[in-house]
Design brief:
88 residues, Alpha-Beta Plaits, four-stranded antiparallel sheet, 31% strand, elongated
Amino acid sequence: MEEKQSLLKFPCQFPIKAMGRPESGFELKALTIVKRHVIDFEDENMKTVSSRKGNYRSVTFVINATSQDQLDGLYRELTACDELLMVL
């Protein structure tokens, strides 16, 4: 079996952005998922921004990524969350 190659050099700081509707409570669900995959995540590394009309909100988590497998698992779980409209 061939090992996956990554363009990232680990460990590294890595931003992950999730978007959703403000009334859905997606921020707390996203934070819970991030903390499940990034044990040392600190809340001050989370930034929330509302859209101009307030219909959408984005939250950016800057994490200390330790491996490609960690990022893959985190993205899989975030994208499976119904309250999140998009994950970048």
